[in-house]
Amino acid sequence: MMLRVRGLTVRYGRLTAVDGIDLDVAAGRIHVVLGANGAGKSSALRGVCGRVRPAAGTVELGGRDLTGRPAWRAARAGLVLVPEGREIVAPLTVEENLLVGAYANRSAGHRRRTLDEVYTMFPVLAQRRGSPGGLLSGGEQQMLAFGRALMADPAAVLLDEPSMGLAPVMVERVLGAVRGIADRGIAVLMVEQNATALGLADEASVMERGKLVLGGPAADVVDDPRVTQAFLGVA
Ligand code: ATP
C-alpha cells in the first residue's frame, strides 16, 4: 500500500471527530470516502496530512511513518492535501499559484517539466497562466488546486470534496481529472458528499459520525442498501 492509515483519531477538545479509522490506498488507485455533512471527512484528511495532530493512530506513506508530522513536512515527503475551498491565492497568477505547490521541488529543470505536464493535463490553465487565480471559475480553480498539488510531485494526494459548489457538468470534468491524477501512479484518497464520485472509485468507504461503517471494492459499496438509501435517494 502506498498510503496506510491505522486507528486514526482526531479530537477537538472533548469532541471526537474521527474515531479510529483504517484506510488503505494503493498507487494509481482511487479510494472514495463518502459521508454526509459533519461526518468527519475533512478532519480525517487533516489528520492524515498533519494539518491537525492526531490524538491516536498512524500514517505511513510508502512504508515511511509520517504520523504527526506538520503538513509542510508531509508534503515534502510526498503526501499533499487539496483542501476544501481550494485555497487559491486570488491575486497571484495561475502560474504563480502552481509554483507555490513546487516549493519542495528543488530542481528548476524538474519544476519546468512538471509545469509543462500540468499544462498538458489542464489546457485551460495554460490558456490562463497569466490571469489572477481569483478570476477563474470554481471548476477552473479546482483544476488549479489539482495542478498545484501535482507540482509537489506527490506519491499520494488527499482531495477534500472537489465537486463542492460546482455545476453538474463541471463536477464531471473535475472528477474526470481525478482519474488522470491516479493514472500518474499517484494514490488518491478523496472524500465526498456527492455519491457521483463513487462512479470513479476503485475502493470506497462510508463515514458516519467519525467512524467508517462500510468499506470495500467500490462496486460492492455502491450496491449496499445503506448507500442507496442515504446517498442516492433510493428508498
Ligand atoms: P463537511 O462536509 O461539512 O466538511 P465533514 O464530514 O468534513 O463535513 P468535519 O468538518 O471533519 O466533517 O467535522 C466533523 C466534526 O468536527 C463536526 O462536528 C464539526 O463541527 C467538528 N469540527 C470540525 N472542525 C473543528 C474545529 N476546528 N474545532 C472544533 N470542532 C470542529
Automatic annotation (TrEMBL):
TM ranges: none
ABC transporter domain mapped to chain residues: 3-234
Q: Which PROSITE patterns match?
A: ABC_TRANSPORTER_1, ABC_TRANSPORTER_2
Molecular-function GO terms, alphabetical: ATP binding; ATP hydrolysis activity; branched-chain amino acid transmembrane transporter activity
Single biological process term from Gene Ontology: L-amino acid transport
SUPFAM superfamilies assigned to the protein according to its UniProt record, in alphabetical order: P-loop containing nucleoside triphosphate hydrolases
A Pfam family this chain is assigned to: ABC_tran
Keywords assigned by UniProt?
Amino-acid transport, ATP-binding, Nucleotide-binding, Transport
Top-rank lineage group of the source organism: Bacteria
Family statement drawn from the similarity comment of this UniProt entry:
Belongs to the ABC transporter superfamily.
Q: Which PANTHER family match?
A: ABC TRANSPORTER ATP-BINDING PROTEIN (PTHR43820:SF6), HIGH-AFFINITY BRANCHED-CHAIN AMINO ACID TRANSPORT ATP-BINDING PROTEIN LIVF (PTHR43820)
Q: What is this protein called?
A: Amino acid/amide ABC transporter ATP-binding protein 2 (HAAT family)
